[in-house]
Amino acid sequence: MLQLRTQDSLSGGDYQWLKTKHHFPVDEQGNPAHEQLGCLVVWNDDEIAPHTGFAMHRHRDMEIITYVREGTVRHEDDSGGRGEITAGNVQAISAGRGIRHSEYNPGDDTLKIFQIWLLPRLQGIDPRWATKPFPKEDRAGNLVTLASGIEEDHNALPIAADARVLGATLKVGHRIDYRTSKARYGYLVSTRGGVIVNGQRLKPRDGIAIKDETLISIEAADDAEIVFVDAG
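User: That's the sequence. What structure does it adopt?
Assistant: Structure tokens below.
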């Protein structure tokens, strides 16, 4: 089963400092057809104005992955985590029993990010924060695991959810296949460029929900960059 979630079907809002699109409902105004997929519950497409951001706020029992599309995000949290994450790189937060953090755009240009939330396997774990660079050239024509709670994914950022977050860059006409089981769920968004997923065409920043599929075929209609979540 494939469900295309185009940009114009997404909920969201424009708050001057923040423009956001929600691939999954985050409040009662959300699209009820865009239900969660296993442990994947949030995928927000955020654009944050220069020198603004999310002030210090609290999360609990959630795995939060930030994929930076353009710009730099400055992170600070009450566990001592601090850093600046630039375009193409990833940060992962395990909120666990509770963490307070801020995310700020220190630059003069709009910061563009994906915020991906996953339910953890266990509640009340120790909170943690980590970030890691993932050069785009290493992802050329190849799905690279960026964050994962799967034991064998040793080179990915660790998360405490039954999921992996992957990324790839594709030249026009190039195709990659990903094999999975019908027991798992998938969600894919093209950061830039059009792609065709199992025959369904996505424009940039459209999403596609995938379940009951064992083979996911991804073909680039343009030069493209994709982010994909495989969730239990």
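The chain has one domain: 2-231.
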